[in-house]
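note to self: dont lose this again. the chain is below, predicted strucutre after it. 68 aa total, dont forget to put it in the shared folder this time
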Amino acid sequence: MSVLSIFDLQEKVISKKGADAACPYCGGPVLAIDFDAHLLFCFLPISHKVKQKFYCTICSRRLIPAHS
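---
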């Protein structure tokens, strides 16, 4: 039996830059990565977003920014 995936999320890295922050777990530098994300339905694009994710360069954890 084969299952056909009708939804697909494609992410492409746009840029990488250093964030002015320190990792709360190990104290290492944080890297900010910008992604271009496309949601496809049966090979047709239905959504487009630019996302930013934060990662620690030493312990490789994904960090969530705190909102003030």
